[in-house]
């Protein structure tokens, strides 16, 4: 199985940009669909973005479309989430996820906190 470790979170101001990284180990991510979820305080965990195994297909939550970009570097076993024009409502713990079957995210990282101040 694959282990996932997120990094890159922090405290930023509204309008700023941030890039989250997800380092995978144990298995090559080339065999997994990858994605990001987030959970804000008092809210349920929600889907943010996903990227197919080959990298040719992406999907985004409507709330982040046009502002966030998911990418992967299979050679480095890394997944990224580039976030721009950040809003206070983007404040959440962000989780990197991996799926063998599309949409079935079996593997989760421990999360990284992103806080956007107004």
Question: How does this model look, in words?
Answer:
The protein contains no helices and eleven strands. It has strands at 3-7, 10-13, 18-25, 33-39, 46-51, 58-60, 68-73, 78-83, 92-99, 105-108, 112-117. The strands form two sheets. Strands 2, 4, 5, 6, 9, 10 and 11 form a seven-stranded mixed sheet that branches. A four-stranded antiparallel sheet has the order 1-3-8-7, with no helix packed on it. The chain starts with a strand and ends with a strand. The relative contact order is 0.32. The model has no long low-confidence stretch (mean pLDDT 95).
Brief rundown of the structure:
The model has no long low-confidence stretch (mean pLDDT 95). The protein has strands at 3-7, 10-13, 18-25, 33-39, 46-51, 58-60, 68-73, 78-83, 92-99, 105-108, 112-117.
How is this fold's topology laid out?
Elements: E1 3-7, E2 10-13, E3 18-25, E4 33-39, E5 46-51, E6 58-60, E7 68-73, E8 78-83, E9 92-99, E10 105-108, E11 112-117
Strand content: over 45%
Count every helix, treating DSSP H or I runs of 4 or more residues as helices.
0
Rg, rounded, reads 13 Å
Class based on secondary structure composition and strand pairing: mainly beta
List SSEs in N-to-C order.
EEEEEEEEEEE
Q: Calculate the terminal CA-CA distance, rounded to whole Å.
A: 40 Å
The amount of helix comes to under 10%
Characterize the largest beta sheet: strand count, sense, and whether it forms a barrel.
7 strands, mixed
Number of strands: 11
Unreliable segments of 5+ consecutive residues: none
The rough form would be described as: globular
Q: Compute the average pLDDT.
A: 95
């Amino acid at each position: 199985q694959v282990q996932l470790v997120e990094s890159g979170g922090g405290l930023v101001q509204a309008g700023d940009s941030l890039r989250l990284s997800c380092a995978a180990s144990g298995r090559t991510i080339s065999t997994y669909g990858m994605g990001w979820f987030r959970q804000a305080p008092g809210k349920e965990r929600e889907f943010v973005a996903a990227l197919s195994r080959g990298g040719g297909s992406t999907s985004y939550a409507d709330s982040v479309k046009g502002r966030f970009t998911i990418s992967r570097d299979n050679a480095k076993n890394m997944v990224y989430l580039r976030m721009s024009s950040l809003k206070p409502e983007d404040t959440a713990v962000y989780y990197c996820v991996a799926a063998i079957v599309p949409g079935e995210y079996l593997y989760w990282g421990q999360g990284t906190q992103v806080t956007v101040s107004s």
